[in-house]
Amino acid sequence: MRQAVNRLEDAGYVRYDDGLTVVNERVRDAARELVAASAGVSPPSIEESYVIPQFGARPFAFTRIDAVYVWTQGGYQVGWSPDDYPLFLSVREQDVDA
To answer: For the whole model, what pTM was predicted?
Structure first.
């Protein structure tokens, strides 16, 4: 996985500084369209749900139980139901509608 990220970083598509950031808008837009299309067929997995916000153009932060889950790299897991798995995100008031 890391080799693939390194190649994407060398090509200028992503940056890996304390986390993965998509820096190429074309890649961000394509990923957003792919996720939207695939979600219509099959909802994203729990793991994918933690990655999806990184493709948005707005700043965010995981909060509450999700902040702990991310901080412990999945080491602290609460028995959410796969059919009902909310993500707790903090966004700026001006970005709520988006």
So the answer is: 0.49
